[in-house]
Write a structure and sequence with these properties.
Blueprint (H helix, E strand, L loop, with lengths): L2 E12 L2 E12 L3 E5 L6 H8 L7 E6 L2 E2 L5 H8 L2 E4 L11 H12 L4 H14 L15 H12 L6 E5 L7 H18 L2 E6 L2 H7 L2 E6 L2 E6 L1 H6 L3 H7 L16 H4 L7
Parallel strand pairs: 3-8, 3-9, 6-7, 7-8
Antiparallel strand pairs: 1-2, 1-4, 4-5, 9-10
Helix pairs in contact: 3-4, 3-5, 4-5, 5-6, 6-7
Adenosine-5'-triphosphate (ATP) binds next to helix 1.
């Protein structure tokens, strides 16, 4: 199958509040796919459904041919070994060294001997340029470096699927560029598939093969970055050019200002 992840008719609600409203998405093997959209549109929820942390009310998520929400606990655990996740803000364990942070998933999921863990951790840290920082604690490195350590941890088990939740949030422009290049080059080096949740148009368009735009729990546009840059779709134009108003309104919906000021022509 050419798609590593397939999402069909996916519906999800928190209690009775609908969050995702019938998504269809394909994530082809070997590609970097960006899922973009404003705050709260449901991007992180998509990642949590792919990881099996939450269950949809309707529809399916298939990863490597397996329906995530039909697996038993053991099956889900096995499938999760194929996934690496970079959490929002790339939170590291603050009391563990850089080395131990990256070793953590290896210790959790494997019985590898210590010498092998050491070599694997140093190789992953080398891939992100931080082999020589392995003894430091998270408090002793910069935010950009911490994000790269979190990337090294996400790829510790050589995952088939790497999910990045807002990997650029809070980084300076140089660290953003470094992280973006790293995401792309690691995807090539590992032969994996990457899902990139972000609202940074510049970085995503630079490295993604395909982009989904979400708004209010639905896909409103999709295509290659080149297609989307040419798009006349008002939503895409607003997002790509960061216009403050457009299909996503500046004003919270409700009464018109004229009505509130008692200027509404009628009654
Ligand atoms: N555990 C929860 N219980 C109830 N509502 C939640 C929960 N987690 C998220 N939500 C709501 O679900 C909606 C979608 O959240 P989600 O985190 O998927 O958005 P997002 O697109 O990733 O946004 P952001 O970029 O701000 O992280 C939001 O309105 C959020 O308030």
């Amino acid at each position: 199958m050419s798609n590593l992840v397939e999402i069909r008719d996916l519906h999800f609600a928190y209690n009775s509040r609908p969050i995702l409203k019938g998504l269809r998405m394909d994530f082809p093997r070997g590609k970097v796919i960006a899922v973009m959209g404003g705050s709260g549109c449901g991007k992180t929820t998509v990642l949590r459904l792919i990881g099996g942390q939450i269950r949809p009310q309707r529809g399916s998520v298939t990863v490597d041919g397996e329906n995530v929400h039909q697996l038993d606990t053991e099956g889900l655990y096995r499938l999760r070994r194929k996934m690496g996740m970079l959490f929002q803000f790339g939170a590291l364990f603050t009391d563990l060294s850089v080395f131990e942070n990256v070793a953590f998933p290896l210790r959790e999921h494997t019985d590898l001997p210590e010498e092998l863990i050491r070599d694997l951790v140093l190789m992953k840290l080398n891939a992100v340029g931080l082999r020589n920082a392995h003894k430091l604690k998270p408090a002793e490195i910069s935010g950009g470096m911490a994000r790269r350590v979190a990337v090294a941890r996400a790829i510790a088990l050589d995952p088939q699927l790497i999910m990045y939740d807002e990997p650029f949030a809070g980084l300076d422009p140089i660290s953003m560029g470094v992280t973006a290049n790293l995401i792309r080059s690691l995807n090539e080096a590992l032969g994996s598939t990457s899902i990139l949740v972000s609202h940074d148009v510049h970085e995503c368009f630079e490295i993604a093969d395909y982009v989904y735009f979400m708004s209010a729990g639905a896909i409103v546009a999709e295509g290659t970055p080149a297609d989307l840059l040419k798009s006349e779709d008002p939503y895409v134009k607003q997002f790509v050019h960061a216009a403050p108003d457009g299909p996503v309104p500046f004003h919270y919906p409700g009464r018109a200002l004229a009505d509130d000021l008692g200027l509404g022509g009628g009654a």
